[in-house]
Amino acid sequence: MATRTVIGILVTNRVENAQQVQKVLTEYGCSIKTRLGLHEVDENMCSTSGLLILELFGEEKACGDLEGNLRAIQGLQVQKMVFES
């Protein structure tokens, strides 16, 4: 049975957390198949919060370490979905 794992990350203060989040994502870049970033922006402002959606790939340990390192960052909400087919 194959599994697909998706992690959603709500970054509540992008200014404070972006550097730490980017460091973790870079470290585990080979475990990330798809990365989607969403935040509100218009000509007058850029939101301080954002949502990242990651589709993970590879070894379960590396994916678990990635998730754990993200959860360790203050100001993030991390949710995980696992699909089995």
Automatic annotation (TrEMBL):
Short name of any one Pfam family annotated for the protein: TM1266-like
**Source taxon at top rank:** Bacteria
| Entries under InterPro entries matching the protein | Acetolactate_synth/TF_NikR_C (IPR027271), ACT-like_dom_sf (IPR045865), FeFe-hyd_TM1266 (IPR023860)
- List the coiled-coil residues: none
SUPFAM superfamilies, alphabetized: ACT-like
Query: What name does this protein carry?
Result: Iron-only hydrogenase system regulator
Q: What is the originating organism of this protein?
A: Syntrophus gentianae
